[in-house]
Design goal:
The longest helix has 18 residues, at about 170-185. Helix 3 (about 110-125) packs across helix 4 (about 140-150). The chain has helices at about 45-55, 95-105, 110-125, 140-150, 170-185, 195-205, 220-225, 230-235, 350-365, and strands spanning about 5-15, 20-30, 35-40, 60-65, 70, 80-85, 155-160, 190-195, 205-210, 215-220, 240-250, 250-255, 260, 270-275, 285, 290-300, 305-310, 315-320, 330-335, 340-345. It contains nine helices and 20 strands. The chain has about 375 residues and is of the alpha+beta class. It has three domains: about 5-225, P-loop containing nucleotide triphosphate hydrolases (Rossmann fold), CATH 3.40.50; about 240-280 and about 335-365, OB fold (Dihydrolipoamide Acetyltransferase, E2P) (Beta Barrel); about 285-335, Nucleic acid-binding proteins (OB fold (Dihydrolipoamide Acetyltransferase, E2P)), CATH 2.40.50.140. The strands form four sheets. It has a six-stranded mixed sheet, sandwiched between helices. A five-stranded antiparallel sheet has the order 13-12-11-14-20. Strands 15-19-16-17-18 form a five-stranded antiparallel sheet, with no helix packed on it. It binds adenosine-5'-triphosphate. It holds the Pfam family ABC_tran.
């Protein structure tokens, strides 16, 4: 048994004669992990779920489930269940019958149905709710019933299409933790769709960042946050300072009219690049000792830190998160280490990007 449960090979999707929604997309999903498809509205996230579930067909390319091509397998024969954004519960059926629905279609014996519904309800922390009517439940409870209805069929994969978006912030945080915990307890694959980057970072083993029908980058939350492949990902995942610069030589970049050490290598001498520095990696120092010098243009207290913006002498705006305060009009210096400077090449493919980053750790292992 391989670890890959779902594979997309060069999948393209176009609805009628509209523009292409997914453009030659390839990826692999491993068994037992929590995946998130993250991207702005309309980038094709739901379309990927619909292709996996069998609710729509690929225009070209192949989709595999457990190493078997499933392009022509109908939705009801696939071992996946979907939890929809609006939960899609049957309002005229009680909790028990909503959850039992799929089992009844399979003509399962009553005693078995009862046992399975009970087990599913206890999994989602709603024991004893069998007879409750759907309209007498809160949003969070309905959400749990929708999840119970998906897990009762014991699918190998659960698809979740923005399932938390209708909940208020507090409940949303709570359900994020519950869903993550549920996935671990069940040990099955979850594929979760969201356009909320914080949610993706908090919940996932692996994130696919999508834009305009393409996967821009895939990796663990830490990989994607720390080493974004391009401006789109850097901007979409968290707040960033992104400026244009030049890679002078290995481990040396120039931006804002000055040269700085970095940890990147393997580019052409004097190659134009962009750099990202996260706001929390900038440290406030005195103006004179600053590696960058800025004049503060705004300051907000955010509870755990101050959010400070300022302009350098080239007109670049810098965002700083610091526990130190600075006032509008102050001239301050900023300090950062070589690891804080993330260099991004223009139009680098994910394969080349991964190869480049791997070569850094090989270099470390060689003692270079
Ligand atoms: N059945 C359909 N017929 C025609 N176009 C469609 C259909 N479903 C989706 N689209 C189009 O495909 C594109 C991608 O839609 P999709 O729902 O996959 O995006 P998404 O990333 O899930 O967006 P959102 O976050 O807004 O749900 C959009 O431009 C959408 O209008």
């Amino acid at each position: 048994m391989t670890n890959t449960i779902i594979q997309f090979n060069n999948v393209t999707k176009q609805y009628d004669n509209d523009p292409v929604v997914l453009d030659n997309v390839s990826f692999e999903i491993e068994r037992g992990k929590f995946y998130t498809l993250l991207g702005p509205s309309g980038c094709g996230k739901t379309t990927i779920l619909r292709l996996i579930a069998g609710f729509t067909e690929a225009t070209s390319g192949d989709i595999y489930f457990d190493n078997k091509k499933i392009n022509d397998i109908p939705a009801n024969k696939r071992q996946v269940n979907t939890v929809f954004q609006d939960y899609a519960l049957f309002p005229h059926l009680n909790v028990f019958e909503n959850i039992a629905f799929g089992l009844r279609i399979k003509k399962m014996k009553n005693t078995e149905v009862e046992a399975k519904v009970k087990e599913a309800l206890s999994f989602v922390n709603l024991p004893g709710y069998e007879q409750r009517e759907i309209h007498d439940m809160s949003g969070g409870q309905r959400q749990r019933v929708a999840i119970a209805r998906a897990i009762v069929n014991e699918p190998e994969v659960i698809l979740l299409d923005e399932p938390l978006s209708a909940l208020d912030l507090k409940l949303r945080y709570q359900m994020q933790g519950e869903l993550r915990d549920l996935q671990r307890r069940l040990g099955i694959t979850f594929i979760f769709v969201t356009h909320d980057q914080e949610e993706a970072l908090a919940m996932s083993d692996e994130i696919f960042v999508l834009n305009k029908g393409n996967i821009q980058q895939s990796g663990t939350p830490i990989d994607i946050y720390d080493e974004p492949i391009n401006r789109f990902v850097a901007d979409f995942i968290g707040e960033s300072n992104i400026v244009k610069g030049t890679m002078i030589e290995d481990f040396l970049v120039e931006f804002g009219g000055k040269r700085f050490e970095c940890v990147d290598q393997g580019m052409h001498p004097n190659e134009p690049i962009e750099i990202v520095i996260r706001p929390e990696d900038l440290e406030i120092t005195s103006f004179d000792s600053g590696m960058l010098k800025i004049e503060v243009t705004s300051q907000l207290f955010r509870g755990v830190h101050y959010e400070i913006t300022g302009i350098d002498h080239d007109g670049n705006e810098w965002l700083v998160h610091s526990t130190k305060k600075a006032n509008v009009g102050d001239k301050i210096g900023l300090h950062f280490g070589p690891e804080a400077v993330h260099v991004m090449r223009f139009n680098e493919t994910e394969e080349d990007f991964d190869r480049r980053l791997d070569s850094y750790s090989e270099g470390e292992a060689d003692g270079k």
